[in-house]
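Example 3.2
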Amino acid sequence: MSDTIPIVDLQGGTFSDAAETARIGGEIGAACRSIGFFYCVNHGVDLGLREAMFRQSAAFFALAAVDKAALSIARVGDNRGYVGMKAEALDPAKGGDMKEAFNIGYDPAFDGGLPGSANAWPQLADFRVTAEAYFTACLTLGRGLHRAIAADLGLEADFFADKFTQPMATMRLLHYPPSAGSGADLGAGEHTDYGNLTLLATDAVGGLEVRRRDGDWLQAPVIPGAYVVNIGDCLMRWTNDIYRSTRHRVVSPAGRERYSIAFFLDPDPAAEVAALPGTVPAGETAKYPPTTALAHLTERLTATYAFGRQG
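Structure, written as tokens:
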């Protein structure tokens, strides 16, 4: 049983060499079959852009409450906009999460097309241009990681390409206020993620904890510049439980605020999520009935937001 989260070197994140992609896929596959988390280094996302996105995030959360409320997810809809403190309960038994968030969803313009569903944008200099550039960089990385996953699962390299043409991708800026250190409030309650992959960028403040298969909690140390990547329930379902999503939580350190940026990559809404070729042993049936990515995500979001699914 692993006591550490493995580190995968992406060698620039181009995924253009078949042998290198297979090597990366093998390392990712091993992580996804065991602890369900891995770090990505040399991932190809510009660190200056990432740092600029963190600065914009801090500026947004420093806005007056009335300005953030004007961009509320309840007003904007479609899982976009501002989510206030304790509005989510990832672990309902523990109450609302001690965090606030700002969601930015996929727009066809990120792929060079005409703008589609509108995001809400704060009146901050360079916020939108920075967010759009960073979103696109994470989307490119996420699509590349799916090429490596396809290699690990014995699929064609571009198997997932037509399932992520206009994906239900969401970038979440997250702010956790300083904790009192009592343990009574969690920054984010124990949960698994909903979609295929989550790419998490963190500041220097730790707090992410991963639950091992034996139930013990493993602290995820901060590796500067790296992404912490984990698989979600959709990919677990797609692989017929060959890959396993892992429960995790955020326990904010006492007396320090924490910022992170999570990029959640879900497939296209109409993508069929059914057991992938080769994942169902001979003579057995798939563990899950086929569904669509949209139906899967809607079910999970409805259970998370105290005010229900918006838009």
